[in-house]
Amino acid sequence: MRQNTPQGMSVIVKTVTRLTVRLIFLFGVYVILHGHLTPGGGFAGGVMLALAAVHVMLAYGRDTAMKELSFSGAQIFEGIGALAFLVIGLSGLAAGVFFKNYLAPGTPFEFLSGGTIIISNMAIGLKVMGGLFAIFVAMTFFQGGGTDDKK
Amino acid sequence: MRHGIITLFLALPLAAAFLLAAVGGAKRRFAEIVGVSSPLALLALAVYVFFVRGSEPLVYSFSGWPAPLGVVWVLDGLSMLMLLAANFVAAAVAVYSVGYMKSYTAPAKYYALFNLMVGAMNALALSGDIFNIYVFLEIASVAAYALAAFGLGRDELEASFKYVILGSTASAFILMGVAIIYSATGSLNLADIAAVLAARTADSSGGAIRLAALLMTSGFALKAGLVPFHAWLPDVHSSAPSPVSAMLSGMLIKVAGLYAMARIFFFIAPVARIMPNILVFLGVLSMIVGVLLALGQWDFKRLLAYHSVSQVGYIALGLGLGTPLGIAAGLYHLINHAVFKSLMFLNAGAVEYSAGTRDLKSAGGLAARMPVTGATSLTASLAIAGVPPLNGFWSKFMIIIAAFQAGRYFAGAAAAIVSVLTLASFLKVQKYVFWGKTKENLSSVKEVPLSMTLPMAALAVACVLLGIFYPVVRDTLIQPAAMVLVRALEYSAGAIK
Amino acid sequence: MINYFLVFVLFGVGLYGVLVKKNIVKKILGLAIFTYAVNLFFVLIGYKAGGAAPIFAVGSEANFVDPLPQAIVLTAIVIDLAILALAVAIALRIYEKHGTFDITEIRNLKG
Q: Which residues contact B366 (CB under 8 A, 6 or more apart)?
């Protein structure tokens, strides 16, 4: 992420982005991991993770940002997140009922509580991050004529 | 665990869809194997479940929370019928897609969306929870919107945009209805809602439920393509790729529209009496308007789409009669129409694939060049027009008899006349596309590959078998499904004296 | 009661946008507005004056607002997001093909 590329917004925005983007990402991870204890969860946290990536893209311009981030990577994240969520459901089926919460519930308000919910939140977070970022990138493809890669 | 097998109806296609979405740029061969094997496995699963299920409805609670707290799936005769029909059509269309979608790029995305739609339809047929029905309706619709635009041509995009706007408007109306029902009953579980409302006196919450019914009926009628909510249907079904049209016209409009409507409203006491009348009115209107609009069409797929409007009217009429015979006839026509209308769209796709045209006037004499397409198309045309002993004859005959028995003479007469007009319309198709001398520029046309002829042949055989073995089909499949709705009507009618 | 009335006004505004406006983007905005109205209506149903957030803490009184509509609305919002993204993607493709957002200029199909 070089500072002086001609693309993107002003140097102020780029500097602030450089400082805050990791914090945004970290906060997203926090929201996902504490989804069973506090408001938020997989979807809200996943949106924050995607926004961190979108933030970089807005500040530095698409071409610079896409050197660091990739569209197919987002697609793979999305697919893996969705498959992981399905696997959680199916493992519940193996334990008795579809989406059965078979892990020990733990003490309420402890970090490790709520059984499979924390894993589900991680899977959803991954899926939402990949999905939202992929949507955003796909929209930017339309700039300047767009690419007609699909029939 | 043993009952848990029905969750595979959702889990299997979703797994295929997510896998294909993750490897977006995968090889065509891989996408085809994953994308086609999942509907085939689902068909096998549906047949297996049909044989092993007990006589009692199976209620499956997710994550072990009992109803009405948890989300439940209900496998009764009606769900079983929808599952068998949906997965049979889906399997045939998936195999057909292997050949047809060769000219399109991004096969992984196509099969991912296709599996998503199939899974959502299966789950919709199994849901016993009103919000669950809304969610799967939306998933199926989103996949359908994207599939309708898959070709990315001018017409596809315009039709799909129309579909998105109208479909989402309908969905918002449905969600509004769900909200009102929830506020009036405090429950989302269908059986629980029915019990709560049946225990009340007639007018304590009748107004709210009627408002909800009004909103939701317009929503579902739009999804079903009933007149006057049919404006999107001919555009979408004629511009989408042919396998997609077959799936939309064959199954989606019925599962997402009529099935959901009957499943919800036949159980709810304050509206169970007026709902049949609404269905009869919309059904007769759709039957007549649809066939009259179809008569003037010269675009093969557009003509089929208008006939879908007309035939969905038959189903709505049958269900709306409310008598045991009428409901059985409506459900029988539902699976019959699923089979022959998807077959007709696959035929239209085969003609477009080989001869490169959808215009009836510029085709001609194709039966000699494309024997399988010609023969299956003739079967489907005769079936849809109601020629004995094919399946369409029995269901239309039953609908007409049931209408006269119920004292709805106008509806019965209209059904008979529309049937004649349908025959005329499809004789026109046969005459212009398949019969007569082959045109000069079409003399090099070849039959479509095996992956496309095989599903068409399977569907045509199903048309014949469903007709010949009508008594067996009626007793094993239709009657149990019809009894679910008949009992529901009796239950909710008995609740209000 | 005024809340419910305002929700229906919002619903009407959105429906007006979808049905009357000629511009595709405005139609999409109308769609967004009235799905928000429906979501708002759903949340209002579960609202209880003076109710606490539905997080169960040890020793807290059970005077919660109904949590089910909130969970449902979250699901509905995610669905709306998917539809909105799809509609915008289709609108962008239409703009690529036709060079306009005006629905009257791109009408090929008879409907």
A: B351, B354, B355, B373, B374, B433, B434, B438, B442, B445
